[in-house]
Amino acid sequence: MKQKRAEVVHIQTVEDQLEFKAMKSRIKELESVLAQSVLENRMLETTIEVADQSLGIDIKKNFGRKL
């Protein structure tokens, strides 16, 4: 019994191909920016946690409080 191969063929114009490449590039760029943002956020959260432990106060809770 022969198996049928299911293939999908996409017909694209040159403009469509260029747009697709540009979109893939933009997605990679946005993923990179998001990853950088996540790392920066983790770094800031860790810095606040270390400061909390060092100072013995909850900085987040006391943010903006007048001393």
The gist of it:
With 67 residues, this protein is an all-alpha fold. It is 69% helix and 0% strand. The protein starts with 13 loop residues before the first helix and ends in a 5-residue tail after the last helix.
| Beta-strand share of residues | under 5%
The biggest beta sheet, please?
none
Categorize the overall geometry.
Answer: elongated
Oligomer: single chain
Give the uncertain stretches in residue-range form. none
> In DSSP terms, counting alpha (H) and pi (I) runs of 4 or more, how many helices?
2
* Count of strand segments: 0
Distance between the termini: 83 Å
Mean pLDDT: 89
Describe this entry's structure for a reader:
Helix content is 69%, strand content 0%. It has 67 residues and is an all-alpha fold. The longest helix is centred in the middle third of the chain and has 42 residues, at 14-55. The protein is elongated, with a radius of gyration of 25 Å. It starts with 13 loop residues before the first helix and ends in a 5-residue tail after the last helix. The model has no long low-confidence stretch (mean pLDDT 89).
